[in-house]
Amino acid sequence: MNTDSKTYKAIREVVDSIEIVDTHEHLTPSEEWLKLQLDFGRLFLHYASVDLVSAGMPLADLEALKTDTNLSPEEKWKLMSPYWKAAKNTGYCKAVTLAIQDIYDLPDLNDDTYAELCERMRRSQKPGFYRMILRDKAKIAISINNGPVMEADRDLMVPAVSFGEFILPRERGQIQNILNGYGVSDYSVDGLVEAFGKAVEKHMSERMVALKIGVAYQRILKFDIVPKWKAEEVFAQIMRDDFCFRHDLGEERRYLEGKPLQDYMFHQAIRLAMDRNLPIQIHTGIQEGHGNYLSQTNPIHLTEIFMLYPRAKFDIFHIGYPYQSELAVLAKMFPNVYPDFSWMHIINPWAARQTLHEWLDTVPGNKILGFGGDYKFVEGAYAHSVMARENIARVLAEKVEDGDLDLDQAGRLAFDILRNNASRLFDLQRFGVEVVNL
Question: What number does CATH give the domain 129-431?
Fold first, then answer.
């Protein structure tokens, strides 16, 4: 794409004007961030860290880079620099470099800049930094944060909540804590469902806008219809034997296959959300970290769920990458399926553009969700938003130059993909994020 063309410049101007909705983050509350001891290792909490390990960095050295506050910046740089140089070509590392350039006004992370970067990060650690980055620089109207949203961040974020302890209950003590915490005395599957409902109501009173399900890290996204008696059998065995069922390779503790209870509770989660008109965000596709079973994350496994619950609204994350074509067809077939680019623009910027091209020929434009930063630190959310805007503007400009769209259509699609679709899906007008009609 010729970024000097009149078409690109016109569309880029529209894209850059949009105050976007960020569908997914994991941002540390600013009150907690203010207490941290910052250095450049924070920019490798996740994502780029995967590429360092892929390039050969030992896991122990990565952990030290991220968390060891006793190591000096010089010591951390010695641990990381060979692998940083090897991995800088990736989308993850491009995002880190972009954040360093745009936020900390340094040309790169290298032998000459790592110490100054640490100093500038520390000088920036003051109240108002989150607002400056998210609202002023990234022009994000609101972020849906998968984690706590404290008072200082309430005008920047609204929460989505994961309920993994309800969907994947692991052991007796955990279940006891859940039931006792919500004042439920019925030690049964019905009691667990009752407590789940109370948890959902509590979080909705605290502005929760979505229920998040991330169990694809632990198991396949295939959820059978299970009679309650089968779920009760697993529940009873956990309460009797205190088994801990896990999928970790090499796990030495005894474990039981908890799938019947997991499946049953997953269906309860969908019903609880559906009855409250609460969208359900589901992780599909690529997993963060080092080693897992990718095939269990294919969104095609959710087909029966989409059929069973036509009134539920499903926000399907990460474009299902590398199963993005399957997700496109699911979104075409099911009115209740909304495909989401969260995380994707940094995973593989080129694939993100190719996918948007494909989806614009496949999926109605009022369903595509164009951006979710999916970062633990605001610098990453900013850099990801810049990459997303560039990708979306390039694809829309190419569509116009190919004759598939006119400029007015492209402008409307830009607002829908980056703002309006998410505002409608999550009812964000109640938080001041109005739909912009062109």
Answer: 3.20.20.140
